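Problem 12. The chain below contains 254 residues. Write out its predicted structure in token notation.
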Amino acid sequence: MSARQPRVARQARPSRAGIPEATVARLPVYLRTLAVLAEEGVATVSSDELAAAAGVGSAKLRKDLSHLGSYGTRGVGYDVEYLVYQISRELGLTQDWRVVIVGAGNLGHALANYGGFVSRGFTVVALLDSDESLIGEDVGGLRVRSAGELEAVVAAERAHIGVVATPVASAQSVCDRLVAAGVTSVLNFAPCLLDVPAGVVVRKVDLSTELQILAFHEQRRTGAALGDGTAGDHHVGERPVNGGDLGIAVPEPA
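Solution.
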């Protein structure tokens, strides 16, 4: 790694289609790692150094970044600032994405109060709930609005993304209303599968499932320590939950 040098000129390149989903899932990890390097004043980083910091193999990292048209410079590595720009552009983070959260319970409160969304290109524009006792409450600078206003709020706020932070019983109906209102991307925190029409993207964040996976690996580690033969390959990578980098690390799927 080397100290920061003067800014490089940015030349726009067309977005590339056909990037594998597994690569897309790793791009936020690279972006978060690069952001830390940038804050430390690092100007260039080798593929080996970046891969180690991101917790992936260097060959995999180089292949992932090649999908963006970024190959680095032999003997120098990658320009940190420009790579941040490339990944941000590919993820759509150079635009402003307006987000509506439905469900103002504990999870909805936490999401609305999270300060990291704005720096990543996301603006929470509304928080809604059906509980009359919560309507009107101030959360993260937003006034909780009635879920009955959902369609009007989506239209007025020009929301692109809907977050479902409701109990399971109402998750599908909330999703249906979001889609009918024009939302085409949904982040679902309810522990259920949502049925959506073609053209709508749903990302599911199931914390209980992730905890169960962690429990599985912890059990195998315990078995290895006791020598009871239950241990296997227990190396676990870490990857942030997709759909908005919430800072929660989960095991990397096999």
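Discussion. Residues 2-16, 231-254 have pLDDT under 50 and may be disordered. Students who got a different answer should revisit the alignment rule from Section 12.3.
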